[in-house]
């Protein structure tokens, strides 16, 4: 069985034809965003539509958090992303009939998201029920150089007969969110979150709407302007408190066309006055209109050229994977490029999933990619975390801890988790943030960031670990009662992932304070406190099962009863939907890579033999009920030499959204899993390891790959790693020489002086480990039983 | 500091004078109930009032259960006790002014609950703001012989001047419940749960109201009739859909009085037709009216005489304790006497606390008392559990288990817990129920009950344990991931209390099936299944810390970090209100007796030395944030010889409601803690142990006690144990001779032939163990800092 959906192309992704059943998949995959603003890939005319999203990063509404039985420290208020006024809607009336692809005759319909131009194209030929044929061409971009600006280039042409057309370009403020909450209080709070503040229309083509969210008190302004080309009979703009509308009427002769270019600006602020917001948004639209579509498109292309020049990943020999990795990188870039001091939500700005919350996977999965591909975006995301430190400090105080406890899920920085065993107890989020800080500092040497934000994050999180941990009588430091990445094993002692990440956090904090003693002093850090951090790090408990020769996921984990995998039916996955937490928690069953993620992120702590044994052991327990799992399993599978298995996991991560493997595409994209596609290729097949002073590589390609080439931004230059089965060439574009390792051997590469090294012979890894029944990656990938599109070129269900 | 509230008397409890601040305490303490019907001790005229409750056991409304993040197996629907139409209200107008004790001059106000007559008396002398003085005398009873009937004997007399009086006797249907739920959906569902069905008035004195609950669909009918004595100018009754009202007007000359006797009947059913309910309730009222007040009061007295004759506990030398234990027994009796196939809620029928739910403490704390004092009530409560088996079987299936999983909290039998770590995971509830079945069978030899209900409960719960447990490679049987009685240590492995109770359950089930092979066959039990139960029981894990020489509360418990008791302030208790579960769960801190409860209930499993060491160890960890703790600690303290400490804990249990130690008296009484007063005296000071074939005693009195005498109903006779410091006399009222043990030595007692034995010398138990700071019983008892009443006789804050 195969389940190809999209058209395969090197530098973009398209969909030819029309099937309403897969509408949500296109809406998410064709999402445009720039980190500040996001528009789902809905049709210009708005309908048909599954989820019509327009989002501004940070704009949310508060709602009550309901509990059947509350408890101390349970958050009172939740936060949900909301739809901001949506400027992407352009409705069309042909003759007297609304253009709707479900009526009349759809002669052709093509959508194509171009990764190099950053433009979503659409080309339609349609004959109305009355027999009038038109050609519709639209181009949509969210500017990467003017962060508040989106633009639509919209052209309608009469094909054979003269046609009366009316084009209605709108800003719509009342698009409903999917009602995911069962609780009526929550639904009520989110039903109409925008309260009108002001509206105005001017010059026939311009309008501005202003709103304020009812509870969270966030001001939002959206403005639009239009350029009209062609013989328009009338152009008129009106605005009401909830809607703005520019109506263009024209009579097109056969072959004649009407072009409308729409510029939409978006600003928000919790504190700016309505007047200030209006001035900003109208200025942004004015600037965009002066640049025009071509100007914006030109800047967009230039931005992306620079991005791809440094960061493109080339996979020769596997066309669908070539496309998938560029799609993944493009969407990861879009989620963060211009976020600036804002978060990277789990779904980016591509959908309302997880209520728009940001989780630990931003730092653990997305930031590794951004650090090496778009470090300025990584910096912005870390600055956002820094900006929420007061929330995290308050949370730590509430929990009777010290330092800062970052939230499990949040928009504003406040904890929004309503289930503490998988929220509050998952303290590793603070270590993941610190690890991202340390990685960013290693990769960029950004001393300014370290001084201004980095030290403080490291210090406050180090303090958290000291307050959380305890010394036993033998001088071992323990972290009891926490939840690691694996949400099927909650409230455990000495989770190895958490402990090793905390260890790195403590050491990094001590080192950073010693580098910036004045900052340490500002933060009240004594020399003794740094020594305590080092001592705790050195004494950190790391449970190991000597009998099996493997690390335990947590103290005693390997002694627990194993889940009855053979007695679990295919349709009983995900387990959390079919079994009580009670039973899941007490048995050996792993939702997502946990110890295996430690094998990757803290690789220096594990010998090759320990890595191989542990990987094999946890493969038998891991059910991948989280999208975060496959990338880590791919990386470690590649590391231990199981390249076909690594390819299977990579395929799962790469197709999770394209093939909607989890049946949740209406929520938006899995940004962290998409980031994991890059990591699986670069850290898995490329063998990149970045924990120490020197970046190391050990590229080994899958049998289907002829070449794997990727760029690594490192201290303001780009290292390109160009791997072929027989050997790898390292080249540097600028700056001082760079020392790195190739299969453990140091080499130095200088600009203009590429270095090529052979791939050493590989040891036989033995037979690959097996997974729980129904949960091998091949079974998961093949589980999608929707019919394949007839006309789609070959992307194998499972990569060979 | 002392905090006596009520007047001390041997056979009742009273309150002289008036302080509005302690109103809720009187409302709960003066509650009347018969197990079917409950009326809080509110004033006849309805105001002032804190919580005006009238309850019918089982009548509840359903409401949604809200979750911020739901999960598999979370209950959808909750259940809450509601106020049924309240027939205790009799309003009075004197001249043109409503009688209200807060206006005019209250010259005297006495309330007295008489344990022998089962009547709540009230005597008031009041002068209206206009200067008219009246005497009000009311008597209220809830019949123990006519379960649906309540009656009020109400008399108003003019003292010196002639007075115009209007007496308005009502059934009120719209008394609000306290709004304890934060969630608006839940509040809405409970705001007006009764939907009117029918109403009628007849004969000037009679009225009937009928309702149906909106969601749970329960029909409720309440009827009243009146006898009027005295020179009434008019008597008139009217009924509307929400209210019934009998109005009596009279002009009383000086010294003249008007008497109104009100009879109120109550019936409910989920299935009966309105007509059938009406007929039943009107028939009950008619029968009551024919008996008249004196007839009802006579039967009430006879019922109570029989109860006290068998079950009175005499404590000479400690008057307040004499009163407290009779109060406790009286309220325990009231909660269950005529419940018949209905549950015993945590608050009995004395208040809306815990939403009227029934918990494990019904079986673990209340049924031991009822089994030996009112076995027919114990049988009814167990029959109720049996009647909910289908719910429990469905719950077990939902959890992928076998047999029956009884709910943590419920009214109907469906699980209503919204927090699974302290609900679903607390599987011990099913063992507690089985233990109560086995105890009832041992004490009564009720083969009919065993055959009809007992075997099935035992079999289905045994099946639960087999499905829950696992065999390890060494042939040990484990119960992983459960929560024991201590709610501060959730999701632990091999909780000793749970395991020992499950062991007893398994053995009891096997034995019962072998006694009733036909029933076993009906239930599909094979001989092999019984053998498996015995094998699992024999192999049950019982974690023991060999270094400390004590049993662990659960596997590894003694190795966990200790709570920082010295760093915890007095006002940070209860801990769950001031610290996150995360931190509480991972440390050694005990909310309520858990291993110590096992020392009591499974005493045969522990040597004296193990008992003493374990008691001392867990004393240092137990904070008693549950009212269920003090009784168990009292019992075991007495057993290991710490009699003053046992007395302190007994004092805490006995004053929990009388002195409102937990500041929650508006919720109603702590029925299980009150039952614990009996257990502390009988099982603690009396040393009664009932696990085996022969009941054993070992009475040792506190220094302040001159005599402790109690009755034990055993197989249709009463054993009276009459203990003095120097020795104990055992006597039997009827039936065949009874073999028992006195300090380990068997003796036989026959009717008419009492046996007296000396108290053997006691070994020095050493210094008493200490409790966490602020949590010694003395500190808890003294923590109530409300001012003492000036006029109250001496009940010491802490018993000497």
Any overview of this molecule?
Two copies of one chain form a homodimer. By secondary structure, chain A is α+β, with helices and mostly antiparallel strands. Among the domains of chain A are: 12-309, Glycoside hydrolase, family 65, N-terminal domain (Beta-galactosidase, Chain A, domain 5); 342-542, Glycosyltransferase (Alpha/alpha barrel). Helix content of chain A is 32%, strand content 24%. The first copy, chain A, has 19 helices and 33 strands. In chain A, a hairpin with a 4-residue loop joins strand 9 and strand 10. The longest helix of chain A is centred in the middle third of the chain and has 38 residues, at 274-311. The model of chain A is unreliable at 785-794 (pLDDT under 50). The A-B interface holds A 64-75, 78, 182-185, 399-400, 417-421, 424-425, 470, 480-481, 491, 493, 560-561, 576-583, 585-587 and B 64-75, 78, 182-185, 398-400, 417-421, 424-425, 470, 480-481, 491, 493, 560-561, 576-583, 585-587.
